[in-house]
Amino acid sequence: MVNPGKRMHKLQALLAIRHGPGSAILPPEITRIHMDFAMKWNDGHLGARKFWKNCLRNLKYWNPAIPMIVNRTTDQSSPAKMSIYFRQAALDSNTPSALATKLSQLPLAQQPHSSTSNEHPAPEPEEGERVVTIDMKNVHSDDILNEFMSKTGATLVEPTPDEKVEMRQLEELNEKAAVDRAIMKKYIDDKKREERMLALARQEADAIKMAND
What we know:
alpha+beta; Glutaredoxin; 2 domains; two-stranded antiparallel sheet; 6 strands; elongated; ribosomal protein; mitochondrion; Ribosomal_mL43/mS25/NADH_DH; Thioredoxin-like_sf; ribonucleoprotein
């Protein structure tokens, strides 16, 4: 039998991906998403970094067919920008774009991929594409997500009734765990305080004994 604690931990991680920030279905007009920001969080790149870590994985979970490239650089003074590429409305959404055809003809090693050395900055839109950008520098990750949802027209994924029950159960368990931690902390603190008082009493007793010898 699976350990209940391990099961709940895995369930919590799964629900965080399925229904955490960024859990949304993108419209079929979106062909790809590109993020450019610096390696470290300082100098205005914290929001972009948090969006990448907390939101982009959820977007990818619900939209596995859409390429999402993260291009980072060691230059902290560089912009933090997200580029969202749309297929032009005049084209049939089921028709492969010129970009998809072009990329499919490249060897795998030459195809754009995420980079930590500014290897693949956001390209210009291909034929049949338009690009919408979001300035992420010095912007909170929640605000980046709100602007992303507005500009893409993405649809939030609602949890199923069963998932809502599981989420309530997890919330109750987390609340109980917080109470248990507080009780345990008080017990440990009281025990340490008692040990300090006993040690001090022993020191005072030893000092009195030495003084009377």
